[in-house]
């Protein structure tokens, strides 16, 4: 990507966090903000998350390092586990931004096949740069693979994106 381009990243925060946890390493969100900017010319990185007040320090940290946070109200499953499914919010935001021509190219950070239609749309409009899959190739949705989009795997960038083995700010409710 050329420097100075007006490119954006749409990041499924839950998908990213879950995949990094399954890989057994701590993702450095500051490095994740820098690396795609250098590789893909990302000007804005929209990180979609479920809103849980206990993580306010984490949210402040993420904003301080350059993410634009987009919150989804959470619901709770039968076991009391919070669910903040942001898939539809990401699709609507990306399609609105594409129609309003607010970016040149987009990067989607997710492994979720629910985004296959969005990816196909962005390819058709010549607006997709790449998919950055947080999952290993075997765990990335076949639906995304079938779109023919360029898929890069965050796990291949562990040496660049792994943080020290320390908790995120306020991860356990402490500061």
Automatic annotation (TrEMBL):
GO terms assigned for molecular function: RNA nuclease activity
Domain NYN per the UniProt entry, residue ranges: 10-127
Pfam families found in the cross-reference section: NYN
Entries under InterPro entries matching the protein: LabA, NYN
Protein name (record): NYN domain-containing protein
Organism this protein belongs to: Candidatus Wolfebacteria bacterium RIFOXYD1_FULL_48_65
């Amino acid at each position: 990507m050329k420097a100075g381009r007006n490119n954006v990243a749409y990041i499924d925060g839950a998908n990213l966090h879950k995949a990094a946890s399954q890989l057994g390493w701590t993702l450095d969100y500051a490095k994740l903000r820098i690396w795609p900017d250098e590789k893909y010319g990302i000007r804005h990185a929209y990180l979609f998350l479920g809103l849980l007040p206990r993580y306010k320090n984490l949210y402040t940290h993420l904003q301080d390092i350059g993410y634009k946070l987009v919150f989804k109200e959470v619901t709770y499953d039968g076991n009391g586990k919070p669910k903040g499914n942001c898939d539809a919010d990401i699709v609507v935001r990306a399609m609105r931004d594409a129609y309003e021509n607010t970016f040149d190219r987009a990067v989607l950070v997710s492994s979720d096949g629910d985004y296959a239609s969005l990816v196909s749309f962005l390819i058709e409009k010549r607006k997709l740069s790449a998919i950055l899959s947080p999952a290993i190739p075997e765990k990335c949705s076949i639906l995304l693979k079938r779109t023919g989009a360029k898929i890069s795997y965050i796990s291949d960038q562990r040496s660049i994106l792994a943080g020290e083995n320390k908790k995120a700010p306020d991860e356990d409710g402490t500061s």
